[in-house]
Fold each of these.
Amino acid sequence: MTRLCDLDDLPEGGARGFEVPGLACKVIVVRRGGRVHGWRDFCPHYKGGTPMAWKRDAYLNGAGDHIACHAHGAWFDIETGACVQGPCLGKRLIRVPLTVDEAGAVRLRQREERT
Amino acid sequence: MQIIGPDSLVFGVDDVPACHEFLTAYGLDAHDYTPEKGGHFLSLDGTGLEIRRRDDPSLPPALKTGNMLRMQVLGVVDQAAMEAVAAELGKDRQVLRLADGSLRTQDDQGFELSFRVTTRRPLDLPAEKVNAPGDFGRKPNQIGVWQDMPTKPRTLSHVVLFVPDIEPAVAFYRDRLGFRITDTFTGTGPFLRPQANADHHTHFFIRTPPYMQGCEHLAFHMGGPTELMLAGSKMIKAGYESFWGPGRHKFGSNWFWYFKSPLGCNVEFDADMDTHDDDWVPREAPMGAEAAQAFLFQHRDKWAPSGGPKPGH
C-alpha cells in the first residue's frame, strides 16, 4: 500500500497533493474533522480532467471548507466529492480510499489502477 | 461607439491575500492594498483588476453562479463617447450616472457594466524586436534576452465570459455597443473587438449552461513572446500552476500561457495579438484543439545537453 505522508505532516483543515506511481494525476489528501479524505486531482469539468490547485498544494477555497478547482471556480464537498458550485455541477471527484496505519502513516487503501 | 475595452475588472473573492500573492507574482503592482479590504492590481498603463472581499458591501451584486467577477469597467475615448453609450443604453434600461462621472448599468445577461472615460496611459515602450536574415529588428549589440529582463504586463488585454444566452449577448455588444465580430468558433461563440481598439479581441464569449455564467479567463498583453515565456517560467519556478500553454492561438495569433488562480478563473499572459480594421473579413471554424492553437508546449525544468535531462523530466 503506497504511503503518502505522515498524518502529523498534514494539519487539521489542510490539504496536500501527492504524485503516485502509475497514476496520471496527483492524489489530494484533505484532513478535516479528524478524518482524511482522498480525491484524484482531476476536475471533471473537462472530459480529460484538469489538476485543480493554483499553486502547489493550494486545493481549498478561502474558507478552507471546499476543494476548489482554480481553473474555473468549481467547488467540491470535501466529504462527498460532489460539485456544489461552478462548471461541473452534478459531477463529482473520484475518491481515492485512504487508510491511516498504526504508525500514523496515510496510505492508499488499495493499489490504484493505472490510468 | 468609441469603446476601447476593459480598463478594469472587479472581483469579489473569498481569499484576498491569496489573490495578492498570485497577482503580484504575475507581475501586477498592488495599489491601495490591505489584506482586509483588497485593492487595485495594475499593469503598466494603469489598466488592471480591482480585488475586494466577496462580502464587500460596495460591490455590485454577485452572479448567482458563485463566479467571482462582479463588474467590467469599460473605457471609452472621451465624454462624447460616454454620452453616446448613455443615450443608446438608456433606451431600454436604467443607466446610473455616478458621482465619479462613470455610468453603471447591466448587459442583457446580468453582467454588471461600468463605463468611464479611459484612465489608461499611452505606453511608449518598444515591442520585442526580432532579427531575421532580410529584416533585422534589433540594432547591432542589442541583445534579445537576459535572465532578469523585465516581464511586466503592459495592459489588460481581454476578458472571456461564460455566457448562457449567447445570441442576445452577442447582439447586445455588436448592435448596441458597436463591437465588431472578428472571428467565431462555431457553436462556441465569437471574438469581439470594440471600435476604438484594433486588437483582435477584447472579449470572447463561450456558450454555457446558466450555472456556469461568469468569467472564464482574463489576460494581459506582454511586450512579446520572450517576455511571455520568461514570465510564465518564473511563475512555474515559484510554484504556480499552469493550466494551458505556452502556445500560440490561431484566431488572434496571440501567444498564450494560462495559469489557474485564486480568482476562480484562469489568468493568461498573451503577446503579439493581431490587430484589425473594418476591412477584415471574419473567419469561422469549429472549436477544437486543432483550431484553438497553432502549436502547444509544456514547461519543463532546464537541462543542458552535457548532462541530459533528469530522469522523469
Amino acid sequence: MAPDPGEAFSGGYGTRFISNPTSFDTPVVNLSSDGIQFNTGNNFFNRAWVAEGNSASAGLGPTFNTSSCQNCHAGDGRGAPPDSGSLFGSVGILIRLSKVGVSDPTTGGPVGLDSFGLQLNHKGIGCTSPLSYDSNFNCIGSTGPNFTPPEGNVSVSYTGTTVVRNYTSGGTVTLNTPIYSFNWNVNFGGAPSSFHFSPRTAPIIPGLGLLEAIPESTILGWADPTDSNADGISGKVNMVWDAKNQKKVLGRFGWKANEPNLFQQNQGAFLGDIGITSPLFPTDNCPTNQTQCSAAASGTVDPEITASIAESVNFYTKLVAVPARRNLSDQDVIDGKTIFLSIKCDACHKPLVLTGNVPGLPELSYQYIKPYTDLLLHDMGPELADGRPDFDADGQEWRTPPLWGLGLIQQVNGHLKLMHDGRANGIEEAILWHGGEADAARTGFQNLSLTDRQKLIKFLESL
Amino acid sequence: MRNIHTKILSVLFSILLFGSLISCEGPGSDNSAAALLGLDIPASATKSQFLNRYADLAFESYTQAELDASTLAAAVTTFDSNTNPSASDLTNLRNLWVKARASYLVTEAFRFSQGPIDTDTVLDCEPTGSVSQPHDCEGLLNAWPLDEDAVDSYINDGGNSVTSFASIYGEIGDTNLGGEPEPQEDKIVLTGYHPIEYLLWGKDTSSTGAGNRAASDFADATTDGARRRHYLKTITDRLVVHLGLIKDQWDPANTGNYRETFLDSANVNISVGNIFQGLGSFMAGEWGGERLTGVIGETQEEEHSCFSDTTKADFYYDAQGVLNIWTGNYTIQKGVNISTGPGLSNILSFRQQGAIQSEIESSRNIFCINLSDTESEDPNFRTSCPSGSLTHRFDQAISSADSQHGILVNVQRLIGSTLNRDFVAAAAAIGFSVVPE
C-alpha cells in the first residue's frame, strides 16, 4: 500500500518541509501577512529579560524561573528535567503548587499556597552572579537595590518506585519514578504543612494556533466522560477559567488542559515563569507575606509588556509551522501506522482533524491537520499521577499531548525526555508509562513482537 | 530619486555605449538605464569570485573593527592610569566607542552565516574559560540586554579580581548549570560593547537622552572608581582580542582557518547558501527584527543602545554592512568606498537583483544620524538631515504619539517584509532557499 501523499502535511497548508535544528522555529508556509508581527513576536519570545530597574528590556521578576520564553522552549522545542539534582540551573521544568482540598469558589481552579503562590519561583532578582544565595536563600555579599529572595528550590532524583513492564515476546523494561525534594525558603515560614505539587516540562511550540482552531464541537464530539460506548476510554473536557471574559470555558492548553486559549496561556507564562506583567495579568506575582517581592515590584510601571507586545507574541505562537512528516514511503513506517491504529492508540491520539474558521487567519482555517491529540483529559492511572487537581482534572488525569514533531525533538533539543515531567527516556518508555484508560493500548504494545514494536516506534519517529 | 534629466542622459549614454556596457558592468554601477530599456544584464561574477571578495570583505571589516577597538583600548589604558580622570577624558572615550561601534556594526551582516562570528564549532572564543561549553564570539562581544546591577555587583564585590578576564568570564552564564545544551541557560552580560557602553555613559534615566555618568565615578577617591577603570580596561582589551580571533579566521595569510574551508572549491554552493540564509536571518531577525521590536512595543526600554542613545547608528551601519556584501564595496562613511570587488548582487543577473539595492539604501538613509558633535567623530552625519529622514531621537520616535513614529513603522516593514521577500526571491532565482526563522 502506497503512503497517502497528504500524510506529510501534519500542519495543513502551513506545513514546513524542514528537518534540522530549526525545525520548530519557522513561520507557516502560507503566512499571508507581511511577517512583521510574526518577527516581532518571535523577538519577544527570544528576548532575555533583565531585572526591574535596568535601562532596557526590564521587568524580570521579582521572582521567576527563567529569563526568557526561549530558555525553556529552546529552539521552540521541548524542555527537560536534569538527569538528577537541582532544578535551579535547569530550565525546561517547573513546579506548580496548590493548597490541598480547596478550589477557588469563583474560578473553580486551584488555590495557591499562602506563602509561595501557584508556582515555585526558584530565582529572585537583585542577587545576580557573581553574587549567589546562601542556604537560607539570602543573597551573599552586597545585594542589588531590589533584592528579592527566591521561594525555594527543588531537586529531582530517579530513585522512586520502579515499574516493571514485561513483553510477551520476552524482555522487560524497568521504569524509574522521579522523586522531588523541596527546600523551602524559611523566611516565608518554610515547608507548608500540606500542599499539592505538579512538575511540568515545557512543550513544543509548533502548531499551537492549529490546536486552538479545532472547533469546540469536534472536541465535545470526542468526549465520552461516562464511557457510554464501553471502549474503556472516557475523555473529559476540562472547564477552566477565562480571565478575560470572566467565565468558565473549555480548556485545551497545558498538560492538564487548564488554559482556555493562547492569549491567556502566554500571558500566564510571562507572569508565572518570568515575572513579566501584561494587560491580562497586570499585578506582580508576590504572595502577601513576601514583603521584599512586593516592595521591589512597586517601583515599576505595570503592565511591563504592552497590549501590542502581548498580541505579537500571541500571533507568533499561533503561526509557528508544524514540520512535515518524514520517511513516509518506508515500509516499516507504513506498517507502524497500521499497528498504531490496531492497538487503538488513535482512540486519544487523533490522527486527522479538520480545523474550523479562525477570523482573519486563513492560514489556520479549514485545514486538515494531523495533531495526534483529542485535547481531552484521560485518567492515566496512579503511576503517572501528580495528585494535584486542576479545575475539573483530578490528580490522575492528563490531557492527551499532540504527537506531531515528536521525531524531531532529539534533533532540536538534544534529548528525548517525554511525559509531563520528562520521566520517560524516549518513545518506548513513554508508551510503557501509559496506564489507566490507556492500559489496553499499552498492553497491546507489550503483546507485539519486537519487530512490530520497532515499526511502531519508527512510525512515531516519522511524525 | 534622481531627477529625470539625469535619467534621460544616462539612457542615451548607455545606448551609445551599449556594446561595452555589459563588459564594463562593474560592482556598484548604476543599472537604471538598462532597467528603462527593459534589458537584463547577466551575472558579472562567478560564485567563486564573489566568495573570494566576501572573504576579503570580512577580513577587511574585522580588521577595521579591531583597529578602532584598539584605539579605544589604548585610550582606556591611559584613562586607567589616571587616578582622577576629567570629563573630557571620559568624552574622548565615548567618542572612540561610537567610532568603534560603527565599524563593528558594519560587520554584523556576517552573522548567522555559519562563520566564525557566531558558530562555536568554527571558533571557540574562550577555549580556556571556566565555562565548559564552547562559546561563540558574538555573545561575548555583543550580548544584550544588560543587567546593570550584575556589572555593578562585579565591580563592587571585593572577592573578585577585576584585573583578570578569566574571573569575569567565569561569571558569565549560570554557574549552577547542569549538562543541558545551549541555549537552555540564563546568561548574564559582563563583557562586550554594551557593558563598555554602560560604564562610559551610565544608567539611562532620561526619557529623551543618553545616560550621563560623571567622570568622578572613575576617580580613585570614589568608592569602586579604580575598580571601575580596571574593569573597563579588562573588557575593552578582551574585545580587541576577540575581534582579532575572528579576523584571523578570515586572514588570507593564514592556513587551516575558516577562510580556507569557506573558499574550498568543493564548498562553493554551501558557502553561498550559508550567506543567503545568514543575510535573510539577519534582515528578518536582527536588523529589521530584534532591533526594531520597540516600534510595536512602543516602550522606551526597547532602545537597543540605550546608554549612549546611539540606536539610530545601529540601523544605519547594519544597513551599510548588508549593502557592503550586496555591492562588494567596503564602505563605512557614506559614499566613500574604501575598497571594491564583486558583491552578492554580481552573481545574479540584473533582473534577478530586483530592487534590493535601493531598498537597502532607503532603509539606511532613513536613519539620519544626528549625534551631537561631542559624541561623533563621523563628519558625514553632522550636517542637516534630508527631508523624510528620522530626525527625532530613537527613544522619542519609538512612541506612536511621536510625529515620526510612522517612519519607523515603514522602515520596519521595508526591511523585515519587502526587502526580505525580495531577497528570498533573488536567492530562489539562482537555486538557493532562504528559510525564515
Amino acid sequence: MADHITLQVARYRPEQQSDITFDEYEVPCPKEWVVLDGLNHIKDRLDGTLSYRWSCRMGICGSCGMNVNGEPKLTCATFLADYAPGPIRVEPLPNFPVIRDLIVDIGDFMQKLVRVKPWIMRQTEKPVSEGEYRQTPEELDEYKQFSMCINCMLCYAACPIYGLDPKFLGPAAIALAQRYNLDSRDEGASDRMAVLSEHEGIWGCTFVGECTKVCPKHVDPAGAIQRYKLTAALESMKAIFMPRGA
Amino acid sequence: MSDSHVYTPYHPRWLRRRVSTYWWLQKWSYFRFILREGSCLFVGWFVLYMLLLVNAVGKGPDSYARILEWSAEPWVLGLNVVSFLFVAFHAVTFFEAVPQALVVHIGRTRVPGRLVMAAHYMAWALASVLIAWLIVGA
C-alpha cells in the first residue's frame, strides 16, 4: 500500500475568488487514517489557511460532512486507504451555499428543523409526582431508527430535489418529525401535520431514495417520507368521509 | 441555489453553485429515477392500448380482427414491447419501495420488509395467473 495519497481539496476564499478551485496536498496514508485526519494533517503541517468543520471524530456530531469523490460522506468515517492509490477529491457538501473552503451554510436546514417541532409535545403534562412516561421495547422500536439522525445533512447533499428546489423541507427534517410522531409519549402529530403536508413538505419528495443510501446512521429518511405520505393520505380521506371525527 | 433564503441578501460573497442541467447523468441511481419518471408516458400508452383492446373486443369479431392487424404493424409492436418492459420496470421498482412505505404489524410483531415485498409479488403472480386463465383457459 502507498504510504502517501493525494488530496485534491476544494478552496473558496470569497475575498479572492468567485468560484471553487482545487489545491493538491500529499498526506500520509496509514490504514487507520480517515479523510478528516488527512485534512487535519494539511491544516497542522502544510497549509494553515484551510477551513473546514469537525468536532467529535467518531460519527456522532455530524459536523464533518463533505463530498468525497462525489459522494456525501462523514470524513471522520471515510478511510483514506479505501481510495488508494488516489487522488481523493474533497469538496463542500453540494446544495448548500459555500461560506469558505469546505464550510457550508446550514442556516436553511436549522430553520426547517425548528418548523417540524422535533421535540415531545403533550396536550397536558402530568405532574412529576406521577412518575415518568413509560414505554415498552416495542414502542421504542417504532421510532428508534429515526432517532439515530445526527443532523449531518448528507441526505440534503444527496437529494436532487432539494438542490433544484431549496424550499423542499428535506429528508432529515421529515425523518425527525416522524421520530416524534411515532413516539408513544408524543401528542403533537396533528401540530406537525400542517408543515409536513404542505407542497414543499412530504409531497415535494419524488422518492429518488439517495438520502437513505448516503445516511451514515441508517435512518432511512426516504422510508419516513413515504410512510408519512400514506398517513397524510389516510388522514385526508378520514377528513372527507368522517368530517366530525371517527 | 434559489435567492429566496432570508440570509441571501446579507451574504453576497457566499458561493451558490447551480445544479447542472445534466445532474441526472451523474449517478446511476439518479438516472434510474429519471428513467422511472420519464417512462410513465409508456405506462400511460399501455393503459390506453388495453382500453382500445377491450373496446374492440366489445364491438365484435371484425373490430377485434382489425385491432389485431393494426397491432402487428412493426411500429405498434415495437412500441408495445418497449412499453411492456417499462411497465415491468415500474412494477419492480414499486414493489421494491413498498416495504419502506408500508409497515405492517401482526399483533405486536412487525412484519419484515422482505415478507411484505414477497406478498406483493405473490399477489402479482396470482392476478396474472387469474387473468391468463380468464383469457386462455375459460
Amino acid sequence: MLHINCPFCGLRAQKEFAYGGDATVKRPELNKEVSKEEWDNFVYMRKSPRGKHIELWHHISGCRQWFKVQRDTATHEIFKTAKMSEEIK
Amino acid sequence: MQKYSVFSLIKNAFSDHQNWEVAWKDPTPKSEYDVVIIGGGGHGLASAYYLAKEHKITNVAVIEKGWIGGGNVGRNTTIIRSNFMYDANARFNEFGMDLWRNLSQELNFNVMFSPRGIINLAHSDAQMNAYARRGNSMRLNGIDAKLLNRDEVKKLIPMADFSDEVRFPIFGGLMQPSAGTARHDGVAWGYARQADSMGVDIIQHCEVEGFDVEGGKIKGVRTSKGVIKAKKVGLCVAGSTNILAEKLNMTLPIETHLLQACVSEPVKPVLDGVVTFGAGHFYISQSDKGEMVMGGDLDGYNSYAQRGNLPTIQHVLTGGLALFPFLSRLKMLRTWGGIMDMSMDGSPIIDKTHIEGLYLNCGWCYGGFKSTPVSGWTFAHTIAQDRLHELNADLTLNRFSNGYLLDEKGLGTKTWIS
C-alpha cells in the first residue's frame, strides 16, 4: 500500500486516492494555432520513465484536491508531493 | 533435433531420462545477424520461429535480458480468445485462433491448448444488448459467438451466485465456445525449441544497452555481451518498450502499468472454461491442476515494479466474491505482477518505425498472451518483407494522429482507468 502525503490533509493510505497520469504533459496554449503534431503529443504521447516520475493524484475520498506527486515507478518510493501551483524539480 | 514422441519417451526411460538432448542451445552471440529480435518472451520467440519457418531467414538472434519465458509470457492468466468487435482486432485474433489449434502438432511440443470456452457475463438489459451486438459483429467475421440467457449460464456455471440477494444479478452472457486456455510456459518453450532447431540463436542474460543508428538506418545493438551488428532489429519487449524507446529518442503512445494476478490452492473441478464478471473487472478460470486462476484491474499508476500492492488484489477479489461466493473459503497460493504496455486505445502496435530496419511490436495492454502466435506471424512478415501484412495493416503507430483508433472498450486515452 502506498502512503501519500496530501499537501492539504497529510499522510493517507493509497485507497483514498485516484491516479491522474503524467503531470509534466502541457496542454497546447489557448487561442493559438495548434499543429496536428502538438495535439498528438499532448493527447497520446507519453515518456513513462523507469525511475522518478512526476504525476497527478486526486484525493478522491478526502479533500478532493488534485496535486502532484514525485514517485519512483520501480520502487514506489515517494519523494515529494506538491500543490498544483507549485513546481517539483 | 530429436522428436518428442511416445517412442522417444520409452527409449529415454531406459537411461533414466539422463540423455535427452537440450531443448535449445546456449550460444555466444555472433558478431552479425540478419535479424536481431529483442525480447525472448512469447512474441519474440514466435517472431523468430516464423522468420525461420515462413520466410527462411535463419541468421536470427533472440536476445533476452533475463531468461526466456521469465517475463509476461510466464506471468499471465493463459486466456486465449478472439471475442473482438472491431474488424481489425477480430480478423487478427481469429487468424491467431487457427494457429493455436494446430500449435502443439506444429511445434512438436504440448502447449496444452484447451478450447473450453469463455463467457462474458451481462448484468443488465443494456449489457445484454451490447453483447448481442458484439456477438453479431464477431459472427460477421467468422468467429463463433453465442448469446446465453440466464438459465443457459446457470447450466454452464452453477457455482456462480444466482440468488435474489445479489447486487448485480446475472442476466445472461456472451460465449465464445472456441476460446480457452493454454500452458503459457509451454508456448515459450515450444517456440524456443523449434526456432533453435532451425538455426536461431537464443541468447539469454544479454541486456540491450543502446542502439547503433547511422543515417536513419539501424546498424546494430550494443549489449552487455558486446556489440551485435544487425541488418534489421525487432523490438518485442512488452513492459520495457518505453525504456528502449528512450534510448532511441522515440516517444510512444504507451504508458507502463502493472497488472496482478493470483491463484488459489487447487480444488476439485468446479469451473469449466473462463468466466468474466461484467459488473466489475474480474476474470477466472480453473487450471488443469485445479487452482483457480484470477485477475482483474491494473494497479492504476505508472509502474515498473514486477510486484503489486494489496489494495488492488482486494478490490479484484471483492468482484470475484460477488460472483463466486465459494472463493472466500479458498486459500490464496500466490500473487504476482507483470508490467504492461498500455497503449492509448487499448490495441497493439505492430509497425515499422521512422528508423529504417527497426520494427516495433508493442502496446499489448493486458491481452498479449492470446495473440502470441499471430503477433509472431505478422511481425515476422513485417520484418522479412519490410511491409505490413493485411492482418496488421491497421495496427499502426500513426493511427493515433490519423484518428483511426482501435478503441475496443471505448476507454479513450485512459486505458489504465477501467
